What we know:
single chain; alpha/beta; DNA polymerase, domain 1; Rossmann fold; 3 domains; nine-stranded mixed β-sheet; three-stranded antiparallel β-sheet; 17 helices
Amino acid sequence: MDKDALRAWLRLSMTDGVGNEAARRLLACFGSPQTVFEQTHTALCQVVSTKQAQALLTEPNALAVQCVRTQHWLAHQPDAYSHALWTLGDARYPPELLQLSDPPLMLYVAGQTHATLGNAIAVVGSRNPTPQGAQTAAQFGEALSQAGLCVVSGLALGVDGAAHQGALRGQRLDAIGASHWHTVAVVGTGLDRVYPRQHQTLAQEIALHGLLVSEYHLGTPPLAQNFPKRNRIIAALGLGTLVVEAAMKSGSLITAQMALELGREVLAIPGSIHATQSHGCHALIRQGAKLVENAQDVLEELQLAPQQQVNLFSEALGETAHGNIAANDGEDPLLTHMGYAPVSLDALQARCDLDTASLQAQLLTLELDGAVGRLPGGLFQRLASN
């Protein structure tokens, strides 16, 4: 894309009051952003409102700065991955997004830009998951990646980050130079910054093995209104959306609703009745979402090729991860007493008949070993064995 074309695309996307839908009508009528800005007010009014036509004739104040910033970003190509800008109609633009009522005019991308999406599953959930929820997200991400699916999520804290990390662990050994991304992160900021900051290293790893995507211009800070909007892209890229943990009022349920509107599958993992993070998943299941216990359930619901429908989850989770609390050989008896639901110290003490000091000491040991997680409200929860 030359400088004039880039400037025209940026100007169209930055024009106040002209959203994606109006911009699409303009492009359908006039063919290109450059041609749009060659039109008279009268000609523009045949496609958009008078107010929008007037706005199109006025150059945005920040256009010059944004042009320079974008040109510099595109010119700076890291060694192991690429920066690119895909516009609506570009051959690289993901066709899945064209099903949206307002597909982004432009996508800033960083990563393995030569690869493609392949079969993908969106994995979303709470930013404050239970320890079991975070572990489950990572395990599902790993198993689904091993099955050849691309895991799409939002790079947020909690379930999103865990799902990305799992997908990166699950990438196959023959993945160097692979034609499909292992994981895609759709973010709510400009790609010249990483949010949250704790995911700087994770974002770098995703760029090395997958793709970072944003519809927001470089320099865009983490504005609250941008994150629910970007969820439609997450939902559109996946064949379905898997909700790991979600409270009743959460962005994950918005993503699930968007997936339904696009005709995508919605899947949910049940959890403890005591965890508010599971209530949204239970509501989805009551409304008809596929109840998921393992990766095989996901593959079957998405009706993927038979050769991919293998039991990839038996090693990742083991039988006890599905709620079977029968003691394994050599299992700590306290873990058997805990089960998999959150439990208070008093309730656990009643089950195992240990004195308080001994129980607290054993819990601390299990926590340090990564076998038990501590929850708010003085609750404890067993974690699935790795």
